[in-house]
Write a structure and sequence with these properties.
Order of helices and strands of chain B: EEEEEEEEEEE
Number of strands of chain B: 11
Number of helices of chain A: 0
Distance between the termini of chain B: 36 Å
Strand content of chain B: over 45%
Number of helices of chain B: 0
Oligomer: heterodimer
Radius of gyration of chain B: 13 Å
Shape of chain B: globular
Chain lengths: 116, 111
């Protein structure tokens, strides 16, 4: 089966500009996650969707970050305006189950964002 | 804040040797997972161990879990150059479903 797709793979922007990332999860996966991974650290959850509803966005900086998952499939993460500290790899992951906590998460290749 | 702390931060070994990485965490967990990340294949799930399990094997991987010490270890036997990667432990709490990653161990296997 095809994996989690993300685009773009790389993005360089100036601070205060806007940027958007796109994710297409594995077909049939109900749960979708966005993570931020700063260089040298582990991934940190930004937001979790179950189908098209938000389950956990407590760590999402809502003053500048937004995310949506229309029709419970693809998802977009937006940063507006970007700050220098937003430089990181943004990972999308999906999981088959909509309930339970056992299923592994499948990660996409990530988008490496550099804010200058 | 990160839940898990891996030890060591970096490990360099020769091909054929065993590699052991440790993870400590702070809160009660439902399960603990290990992931590998390299530039070629991204972040990949390796193994999951539930809180009521003490040891689990998968191929050359052996994971132990000690909930009384809030710690886990990942052993990779007969390491290969292709095992060179960052290894992360990640925990799921007893309440909630958020997967929280540690800082990772960078493993280098020299041919």
């Amino acid at each position: 089966e095809a994996g989690v797709a993300q685009s773009p793979r790389y993005k360089i922007i100036e601070k205060r500009q806007s940027v958007a990332f796109w994710c297409n999860p594995i077909s049939g996966h109900a749960t979708l996650y966005w993570y931020q991974q700063i260089l040298g650290q582990g991934p940190k959850l930004l937001i979790q969707f179950q189908n098209n509803g938000v389950v956990d966005d407590s760590q999402l900086p809502k003053d500048r970050f937004s995310a949506e998952r229309l029709k419970g499939v693809d998802s977009t993460l937006k940063i507006q305006p970007a700050k220098l500290e937003d430089s990181a790899v943004y990972l999308c992951a999906s999981r088959r189950g909509s309930g339970g906590r056992w299923n592994e998460q499948f990660f996409g290749p990530g988008t490496r964002l550099t804010v200058l | 804040s990160q839940q898990g702390e891996e030890d060591p931060q970096a490990l360099s070994i020769q091909e054929g040797e065993n590699a052991t990485m440790n993870c400590s965490y702070k809160t009660s967990i439902n399960n603990l997972q290990w992931y590998r990340q390299n530039s070629g294949r991204g972040l990949v799930h390796l193994i999951l161990i539930r809180s009521n399990e003490r040891e689990k094997h998968s191929g050359r991987l052996r994971v132990t879990l000690d909930t009384s010490k809030k710690s886990s270890s990942l052993l990779i036997t007969a390491s290969r150059a292709a095992d060179t990667a960052s290894y992360f432990c990640a925990t799921v709490p007893t309440s909630g479903s958020r997967l929280t990653f540690g800082e990772g161990t960078q493993l280098t296997v020299n041919p």
